[in-house]
Specification:
10 strands, four-stranded antiparallel sheet, 224 residues, alpha/beta, six-stranded mixed sheet, Rossmann fold
Amino acid sequence: MIHLQQVTKAYETPAGPFTALRSVDLFAKAGECVAVTGRSGSGKSTLLNLIAGIDQATRGTVSVGGVPLQHASERALARWRGTTVGIVFQFFQLLPTLTVAENVMLPMDFLGARPRKTRRPHALMLLDRVGLADQADKLPAALSGGQQQRVAIARALANDPPVITADEPTGNLDCETADAVLALFRALADEGKTIVIVTHERDIARIATRTVALIDGRMAGAAE
């Protein structure tokens, strides 16, 4: 499902060239939950951006769901992303002026693949799955951090993508809420979705099928 081979990502900065990833290989099958650990600045978020097609490799190849991402146009990548990758951000990124249900419906509206009259019922079904159907018509500000993160997961599932990426999804949550979010990711992997979670927290490793570590942009190893 995910295949990165000899991937290097370099940026030009005011201080000169900066290489965020160096010759990284990563493979993940359907149903795997891969935890990527490493310190700040180790390249974890860059790796997620490459998998999600938000950024492109400087060298090497990135293929997700059998689709090579290098050299694809921004328009093609945006539509591909809408069907293939659900993204869960660390700080939720919910639109504050839309209700919870409307936030979950956004990816459906963007892609237009689901009939309009079915979008809200589908959003309510996803919110029910994360335990928040009763919050559907509230604004995000009325919800706790843990609830907002679960809304973000429901939104990531809106178009039933086979791949889910999550950037520090429990970093701002208390232990009990974090455990519930991790259990949800584990359940999604058990259903066949490929999950890639980047984190500082080694506790996430307990729900992962595999853990890899990034050190200064290099893959340090993998543990089954």
